[in-house]
Structure formats: C-alpha cells, structure tokens
Automatic annotation (TrEMBL):
One GO MF term attached to the UniProt entry: 8-oxo-7,8-dihydroguanine DNA N-glycosylase activity
Cited CDD domains: ENDO3c, NUDIX_DNA_Glycosylase_C-MutY
UniProt-listed InterPro entries: A/G_AdeGlyc_MutY, DNA_glycosylase, Endonuclease-III-like_CS2, HhH-GPD_domain, HhH_base_excis_C, HhH_motif, MIG/MutY, MutY_C
Organism: Endozoicomonas elysicola
Cofactor(s) essential for the protein: [4Fe-4S] cluster
Enzyme class name: hydrolase
High-level lineage: Bacteria, Pseudomonadati, Pseudomonadota, Gammaproteobacteria, Oceanospirillales
Ranges where the HhH-GPD domain occurs: 45-196
E.C. number: 3.2.2.31
Designated name of the protein: Adenine DNA glycosylase
Catalytic activity: Hydrolyzes free adenine bases from 7,8-dihydro-8-oxoguanine:adenine mismatched double-stranded DNA, leaving an apurinic site
Length: 361
C-alpha cells in the first residue's frame, strides 16, 4: 500500500479495522454501554493521563455520577473531590459546567453535532469527534496524542504537531482517512494503535498493520516522529504552605480562586516569608500561636513551571475565654478534620501533606 492508496481506496482504514477486530482493546470500562456521557467523561479523564491511572478514577466517578443530571446537580467541591489526584483540575470544573449546560439547554441529552459539542465548556474538536464517532456513529476525525504519533510517522511529517501549519496538515489528513462506516471502531483503533503498538519510545513495528508502508519505519526513523516541542527552561517559584493545626487536631484549609493553578480546590494558606508565619496563623484563625516546625522543602512540577514548597506545621490554641475557632470568612476557609475528612477537592501535594500531618500528630 502506498500513501496515495491510503486516501483513495480506504486501504488505510480497512487494514486498521481488521487489526482492531483481532487485537483492539474492547473491555475498558468506558467501552461498555457507550453513551455520549460515559464516552465524554472518559475522554476528558484520558487527556494527559494514562489509561491505567484513569480506570479507578473513572469507575468511582461513574458510580457517584452515573448520569449527566447527577453531575449537573452536584456541588463543585464534590466533583473536585472525586477528581482529586488526576491533576489538570480545570478539566473537572469544565465537566461540571458542561453538565449543567447539557441539562439546562439540551434537556439532559447531548447534542448530535461536532459543532454543538465543541460549544460545551472544555470540549475541543478532538474530544467532540471522539464523542460523536464512538457513541453516535457520526463520521468525525480525532487528533489526540496517539493519532498524531501514528500519522506523523506514517507520513513522516516534520515539525512539532502543536504548530499551526503541522496541526492543519494533520487534521486534513485525518479528515480524508476517516471512513464513512465503523467510525467508532476506527476512532478507537487509531487510539489503540498509538497506545499499544506505535508507542512513543519503543514502537513494536513488527506488530503494526501499517508496517510495510510507514515512511518513518522504512527510513528507520520512527523515534524522530513526532518532533518535540522546542524546549524552554521551566521557571522556578517557591511558596511556604501553612499547615495550621488547632487543639482539636483540625487543619485550616483555604479555598483557592476559581481559576488558575488548583482553581477551586482546597489548599493550605500560603506565604512567601517565614517571618509571616506567626502573624498569618493568628490573623486567619483568631487563635494564639503555640509552636511551629518548618519541614524540608520539596518540588512539585507543573506543565509550565516548578514550584518549591516549604511546609510549615503550625500549632494554634484557643485563648482561655474562647472555646471555638474563629474564621473570618467561612466560605473561603474551613477546619479539616483528619478523623472525619469532608469530601473536598484537594491538590495532590496537599493530600500527601495531610497524610503526613496525620502520621505526625
């Protein structure tokens, strides 16, 4: 088969679908009862996240929110709680917003067009295509990381796929290759081939149904495609996280702003100067500082910068005349009980620090 054949006689899709029938993945949780809602949740979770990591999160999420209406009426805190640990929390906030929109504007039924799906928060062209093709049988191409890898290798397409020129070329190719029938299976096989055969660092080309016509393989240059994003040094930032513990063994948490890093999640109050520990702990709680201990710093890396975190375990106590903790703004702060943890969305490093505090107390 030549590259020209791939466009003209459906040889590309036919060979892939034959391989899918014999080797494709068919038993993942989201491949059962393929409703638009279930496919949508899986596609959002699988962005930037491995299948093995997603499976337990998906199962718990679907158990708690089995239908889009269940997700729409839930609180943001509960949604973020079931997302805690998956990262990229804007995905969860957009899921919540989109669920509300599906219920309010479409009576709980997902729209049946790529354009309308893309109008929902957090759904781009590739995700819309996956929902439409897998759950509705609509012919629509996708362009996730697996598809980019397969196409750039097969056609030896130079340039980083994030560049507009390269992205446009890939979408044009994907549109031409997507078959008129079995569109859901074709979408799945493109993802499966990239995930299990055309892997990033160790492709098993001998198992690939496209081996004899893949240009990168013929050139022995599989590992050169897709080309990487030009590297930039990540900036470094630092913060001190105040882990304020009261006499009940509860820990003060602060709700972060709705946008930005860890948006909408609960975290520890942050300061930049250790000299602020006493003032901040007393100001935020109305309690007296008894003692504090600064722990060893550690690094948490985001996609675009490194954050060096210094935890400060801080103990406060009630004045004799006061038996209750005072919090100035109860919507922005709460006392987190380690023995009875509420269902809140927590950033991964915060969850780990809470576990460490529990072992320390």
């Amino acid at each position: 088969m030549t590259q020209k054949d791939a466009y003209t006689d459906n040889s590309f899709s036919q060979r892939l679908l034959k391989w899918f029938d014999a080797h494709g993945r068919k038993h993942l949780p989201w491949q059962q009862n393929k409703t638009p809602y279930r496919v949508w949740i899986s596609e959002i979770m699988l962005q930037q996240t491995q299948v093995t990591t997603v499976i337990p999160y998906y199962q718990k999420f679907m158990e708690r929110f089995p239908e889009v209406t269940d997700l729409a009426v839930a609180s943001e805190d509960e949604v973020l709680h079931f997302w805690s640990g998956l990262g990229y929390y804007s995905r969860a906030r957009n899921l919540h917003k989109a669920a509300k929109k599906v219920v309010s504007e479409f009576s709980g039924t997902f729209p049946r067009s790529v354009e309308q799906l893309m109008a929902l928060p957090g759904i781009g062209r590739s995700t819309a295509g996956a929902i439409a093709s897998i759950s509705m049988g609509i012919r629509a191409p996708i362009m996730d990381g697996n598809v980019k890898r397969v196409l750039t290798r097969y056609f030896a397409i130079h340039g980083w796929p994030g560049q507009t020129r390269v992205a446009n070329d890939l979408w044009e190719i994907a549109e031409k290759l997507t078959p008129e029938s079995r569109t859901g299976d074709y979408t799945q096989v493109m993802m499966d081939l990239g995930a299990t055969v055309c892997k990033r660092s160790k492709p098993t080309c001998q198992a690939c149904p496209l081996e004899d016509s893949c240009i990168a393989h013929k050139l022995g240059q599989e590992r050169l495609f897709p080309e990487s994003k030009p590297k930039k040094d990540k900036p470094e930032k630092s913060t001190i996280m105040l882990m304020v513990v009261n006499q009940n063994g509860e820990i003060l948490l602060e709700k972060r702003p709705p946008s930005g890093i860890w948006g909408g999640l609960w975290s520890f109050p942050e300061i930049s100067d250790p000299e602020q520990i006493t003032e901040e702990a007393q100001d935020k709680t109305g309690l007296m500082l008894r003692d504090y201990d600064i722990w060893q710093p550690f690094r948490h890396t985001f996609s675009h910068y490194h954050l060096d975190i210094t935890p400060a375990l801080t103990f406060v106590e009630y004045p004799e005349e006061n038996t209750n903790c005072v919090i100035k703004d109860s919507d922005a702060y709460c006392w987190f009980a380690l023995t009875r943890p509420p269902e809140l969305g927590l950033a991964a490093p915060v969850k780990k620090l809470l576990q460490k505090v529990e072992r320390t107390l």
